[in-house]
Amino acid sequence: MSPFPFRLVATDLDGTLLRADESVSERTRDALAAVTAAGAAHIVVTGRAVPWTRHILDDLGYEGIAVCGQGAQVYHAGEHRLLTSLTLDRQLAGLALSKIEAEVGPLALAASRDGLDGEVLMGPGYQAHEGPLPYVPYEDPAEVWSAPLTKLYIQHPTLSDDELTRIARGTVGGLVDVVMAGPGIVEILPLGLSKATGLSLAARRLGVKAAETIAFGDMPNDIPMFGWAAHGVAMGNAHEELRAVADEVTVSNEEDGIAVVLERLLSA
Question: Rounded to an integer, what distance in angstroms lies between the CA atom of residue 258 and that of residue 32?
């Protein structure tokens, strides 16, 4: 029998498993290797769609199942194939977008297309994060709706991320879901979709239950995952909404917060 008290370790990527430079420390790699040697599985659960996640998984030598796109995509990293993929109803998304803009004014927009190689389209005024993640700029709004989507990203010129999320959710909560996934990242998703949705599907494939799962995260989009898992650990750098529902708070992603917890559980 494994001495480790959980059979599944679910980790978010940005702000959690990854440091600011998108690397994973040797200490954290070693801790995850130790828990898998003890019989547990490690699963990445990220808001990033597969095209923005695949290179990180490949660098980690990760060959298992990953949950991507806020739960929309269950991806087999070793086989480089999608096991499940849920798309956003474009008609509902367009209606939701118009209702939000009627409430707060014009929004800057980006969109993530479905599929293993789905492009991220970025419209005028959308502030992209610095880094290597590829995107395609567009001028004609019709391009956004021309192919299946996993989600939309919205930004407002003056509202904070928290304010935009609150107003948007209150305005279109019956049509779509709205989550804040990171600084400058407010997303419109299919109604009912969350990281918990994708994680439960992936866990079922692995034969693991919620009661056997520990989850790590840093943003409000991790709240459903914490609600599903037996034990939720917020990073020291986590958003206050996630810290409020966490079972414990570790140190930050830059200080190997995941490793600190896993090492303690292994030694116990």
Answer: 9
CB atoms within 10 A of CB 91: 10
**Continuous H helices in 105-228:** 161-172, 195-206, 223-228
Position 1 pLDDT exceeds 50: no
The mean per-residue pLDDT over the stretch 79-85 comes to 94
Q: For the whole model, what pTM was predicted?
A: 0.94
Residue indicated by tokens 């959308």: 126
Portion of the chain with pLDDT greater than 70, in percent = 99
Q: What angle do CA 116, 119, 121 make, to 5 degrees?
A: 155
Q: What are phi and psi of 178, to 5 degrees?
A: -130, 130
Report pLDDT for 126.
95
C-beta separation of 177 from 191 below 8 A? yes
Distance of CA 164 to the CA centre of its chain: 19
Average pLDDT of the chain to the nearest whole number: 95
E-assigned strand segments in 2-158: 8-11, 41-44, 65-68, 73-76, 81-85, 108-113, 120-122, 136-137, 149-155
Residues 6+ apart with CB under 8 A from 129: 184
- DSSP annotation of 132 reads S
The residues, ordered by sequence, that sit 6+ positions from 111 with a Cβ below 8 Å of its Cβ are: 120, 121, 144, 149, 151, 152, 153
- Residue 117's alpha-carbon distances to 18, 28, 53, 138, 149, in angstroms, are 22, 29, 11, 18, 12
